Amino acid sequence: MTYLVLSVIFLAAAALMAAGALIVARSSGRVARWWLPVALTGVVVLILTAVFDNLMISSGLMRYAAATLSGVYIGLAPLEDFAYPAAGAMLLPSLWFLFGKRDRDGR
Questions:
Q1: Residue ranges per domain, the chain?
Q2: How far is the C-alpha of 53 from the C-alpha of 40, rounded, in Å?
Q3: Which candidate among 20, 30, 72, 100 keeps its CA 20 to 30 Å from the CA of 38?
Q4: Confidence (pTM)
Q5: Phi and psi (nearest 5°) for 55?
Q6: Which stretches within 28-101 are classed as H helix?
Q7: Cβ neighbours of residue 34 under 8 Å, at least 6 residues apart?
Q8: What distance in Å separates the CA atoms of residue 18 and residue 42, rounded to the nearest whole number?
């Protein structure tokens, strides 16, 4: 199994959970308050991943077998390295939104 296939599986699961959270947020009228912080967090996490993955790869801390990669890179970091932070940026806030405690007024 290649990293790309594994990445697609994780991204699909996270996207399904995020879609569910968006549906619940929309039906409760809270989508405007919820999606902007999630999107901004995702952007920050992906930027940090790009910076630190490139630093770690350039210093020799990580190496990848070329046969398991898609061949698409952002700097020295393979595209697949960005799947897990992207999935986390979608999945964790979605789970928190769906299963977290609510205030007395349901927020």
A1: 3-99
A2: 20
A3: 72
A4: 0.79
A5: -65, -45
A6: 31-58, 83-99
A7: 21, 22, 25, 93, 97
A8: 12
Sign of the dihedral defined by the CA atoms of residues 62, 39, 19, 28, in that order: positive
DSSP codes joined into one string, 6-27: HHHHHHHHHHHHHHHHHHHHHH
Q: Give the three-state DSSP class for 74.
A: strand
The per-residue pLDDT for range 32-48, each reduced to its tens digit, is 677 788 889 899 999 99
d(CA 7, CA 1): 10
Round to whole Å and give the CA distance between 94 and 42: 12
Cα-based distances in Å from 49 to 20, 22, 31, 59: 26, 25, 27, 15
Which stretches of the chain score pLDDT less than 70? 32, 101-107
